[in-house]
Amino acid sequence: MNTRLRQWLANQKVTSRFHPSWILIAVGASLAIGLLMWLLSESVFRHERPSPAVSVLPASTQRLPASEQQLSPPANDSALPAAEIIRTVRLGRAIFTDTQTYAKAYVGNGLNCVNCHLDAGRKPDSAPLWAAYGLFPMFRDKNHKVNTYEDRLAGCFRFSMNGRAPAYGSKEFVALMSYSYWLASGAPLGTELAGRGYPKLPPPQQEPDLVRGKQIFDTQCAICHGADGQGTRVGTRYAFPPLWGPHSFNAGAGMTQIKNAAGFIKANMPLGQGNTLSDQQAWDVAKYMTSQPRPADPRLGRP
Ligand code: HEC
Ligand code: HEC
Q1: Considering every ligand atom, which ligand is closest to the CA of 282?
Q2: 163-182 pLDDT, tens per residue?
């Protein structure tokens, strides 16, 4: 024991009801109880804390912020700035899942963003937005320049949606960026996260084949996407989106590249039965789909 402490102890009056070392024991005990309580609360309440949207865990274990509560506006007006961002995030989600309604002026086909970015842009291996947001600005070979996130969104409007991009800074772009930002909260910047983009399949063992591809299409895909691949409408809307033809993505879209199509199909199609096709089947049906007619690449006609 150090000498000052010993002196202090010696100076304390020892009575039948009080001994100075009791103070030390009491302090020690409270510290121990405090530590115990803290450990307990850590283990019990940890799972209730908001966790980062994504981590570098394998895609299947990633926890995505999905719940409605997180998106509902605060009840009182004192939280207006918060309400405004929530409204904007919600608009972004609406545009993403129902582009036909909320960004109608910019769409030139029958698709919605969510058709190729499943589960409102959250599903791993389906080019999820939470994995994309933190990777921009990024150099892209497609246009040989550093692309901002808005540039990337513009690309999907122009090619995948066969339309034209909203103005930079427009309410549509701000909303889509806000939604992506919200999905990506907690995710690291500049890191290629598991589940980003579409999976890269190993090269096909046999040359992808149109005849085998058509067979797979007829037996596994036509039931939803239509025997002619042009989708299935209910009223004026597509219940099942067109894979080719005038209302599908155009020839400049990423989905026309067989490697993107094969990866997307392997992981996500037939809907609800992802990863049931073999890699070869995914390559074959992707070959068949990407060989079909569709709107021209706008970079060729209208520069
Ligand atoms: C026809 C399918 C299709 C549609 C519809 C579509 N996209 Fe995409 N999108 C793609 C493909 C293919 C990629 C490239 C994926 C890759 O690089 O692995 C992509 C990539 C992206 C990326 C970048 C992903 C990353 O990880 O780099 C964003 C952001 C994006 N799309 C947003 C949108 C938005 C917003 C819409 C609607 C306006 C939309 N997409 C509609 C097919 C589509
Ligand atoms: C049970 C119905 C169903 C089956 C079967 C099915 N799909 Fe789909 N597919 C969908 C739906 C619905 C979407 C849009 C998903 C969304 O919006 O969440 C979709 C989206 C797609 C897309 C992206 C959007 C587009 O229009 O290009 C492609 C490509 C695709 N499917 C290919 C296929 C292929 C190839 C097969 C067969 C191997 C197949 N699908 C089987 C229902 C189905």
Answers
A1: 2
A2: 999 999 999 999 999 999 99
Nearest CA-CA partner of 231 in 249, 214, 216: 249
Residues 173-192, mean pLDDT to the nearest whole number = 96
| Ligand 1 site, CB within 6 A | 96, 99, 111, 113, 115-117, 127, 129, 131-132, 135, 152-153, 156-157, 160-161, 176, 196-198, 249, 253-255, 260
Q: Say whether 210-301 and 81-183 share the same fold.
A: yes
Asked if residue 228 lies in contact with residue 275, where contact means CB atoms within 8 angstroms, the answer is no
Percentage of residues in the chain having pLDDT higher than 90: 70
CATH code of the domain made up of 81-183: 1.10.760.10
Q: Is 224 in the pocket of ligand 2 (CB under 6 A)?
A: yes
Q: Which CATH superfamily is domain 210-301 in?
A: Cytochrome c-like domain (1.10.760.10)
What percent of the chain has a predicted confidence (pLDDT) above 70? 85
Ligand 1 center–CA 260 separation, angstroms: 11
pTM: 0.81
CA of 127 to the centre of ligand 1 (A): 6
Rounded to the nearest angstrom, the distance between the alpha carbon of 188 and the centre of ligand 1 is 20
Domain boundaries, the chain: 81-183, 210-301
Alpha-carbon span 206 to 220, nearest angstrom: 20
